Amino acid sequence: MSTFEFLWQGILVAMQPMNLVYALVGVTLGTAVGVLPGIGPALTVALLLPATYKLDPGGSLIMFAGIYYGGMYGGSTTSILLNTPGESASIVTALEGNKMARAGRGGPALATAAIGSFVAGLLATLGLAFIAPYIVKLALVFGPREYFALMVLAFVTVSSAFGDSALRGLTSLFIGFALAMVGIDQQTGQARLSFGIPDLLDGIEVTTLAVAMFAIGETLYIAAQGNRLEDKVEAVKGSLWMNAQDWARSWKAWLRGAAIGFPIGAMPAGGAEIGTFLSYATEKRLAKNPEEFGHGAIEGVAGPEAANNASAAGTLVPLLTLGLPTTATAAIMLAGFQQYGLQPGPLLFATNPQLVWGLIASLLIANAMLLVLNLPMIGLWVRLLTIPRPWLYAGILLFATLGTIGANPSVFELGMLLAFGLLGYVMRLFGYPIAPTVVGLILGPLAEQQLRRALAISQGDVATLVMSPIAAGLLIVAAAAFLIPLILRIRGRGQVLSQLAANED
């Protein structure tokens, strides 16, 4: 069957009434959490993992993807009206968007962000549908050593991409590895690191760790900040729609943003932040009036927002085809797949094509829903910004606890929820990224399994791990992904020190 036929079948699945409801719930929740500062789609999906444990797998995954897309949409509202990015990928939008809002042009800024997100999301989702089958064909030739090399690449890029320090990222990753060792060894049947506690024989639940570190840890961190000055929300003045000049300045930026964001999101070391900064720099370089940048240029909102949403679809390429998460939300979505006994990768396209193509097609529908939701209901999203922070985070804490009890009614599980929540708070306090820990717990056992299979096939010969051209190439890329940022960081520090010394002289 061709990609068009698969996509048409997926549209029929996505158009089923219950799946439409799941998509609508997902995009509504996603937009709401994107609007609220400090609450991203990763936290929301983590909270819903235990609550959706017994629901339909296809519908739940459609809802999670809707939350991801909606979160990318909603972050622009906070950036433009509050100058506080709801997501790290919306930082660039705040540069020009808030200036436009202060100048009384908040409506056109929100409009170009919403329409640009729709255009880029549509193009990127179609790109996902047509590129994914080719990556699946490539991945089907992978053996154990190629998969192990791919996992190593994922570990290195995830550690480098999250946080400011590769060392802290690796430390967080190895915490996840240590937690992944708990339980019964799948090959020998021996108990590891269970300390005689029966509850640990099945290992540590990914949902418990994700909810604890993203929800409990974040709540404790926010509570520890104490009272802060209230942020001023800029009112939306004048018309919400763009004029002819705004359209003329925006449409090329939307297309360029989509072209930049999608491939960067699809890279193992990608991420929406890189794409948005590149899009902003590109628009500034190509602008007819570059002096407007920094004072409210609409291209500086249109391009980065398009790149932001295109990268969300790009992120799903390695997740669905190879089972590799490149963002925190993708890592939690991977946990969602595994919650239903599904492992994203090339075999999923062969064994469960209805679910995969239904998920991809649902993104097209969710994208249209988001356009309808965002512009007419902007007043509602702005009012969400007035919710008191104590009420908001108290609700998150309550929902996280009730969700964990519902999925696994155990006192020991609640104790682990609190312990991991405290661990997440401490890591957040000292600047250690949380996502690599979750990735280590999810992918650690898979990497160990592939390594042991490769060594069993080669009768213990470690050298065979790099004899495959594909495996060797992946390991070289992994080494480069770790060393190049490290070298650039050291060189940058050296230049700063040299400049300081020159200034003292």
UniProtKB/TrEMBL annotation:
Q: Where are the transmembrane segments?
A: 20-49, 61-82, 109-135, 147-163, 169-185, 316-335, 355-379, 391-411, 417-444, 465-488
Give every DUF112 domain span: 20-438
Q: Which domain of life is it from?
A: Bacteria
Q: Which UniProt keywords apply?
A: Membrane, Transmembrane, Transmembrane helix
Report the PANTHER family cross-referenced here: TRICARBOXYLIC TRANSPORT PROTEIN
Protein's UniProt name: Tripartite tricarboxylate transporter permease
According to its UniProt entry, this protein's organism is Rhizobium bangladeshense
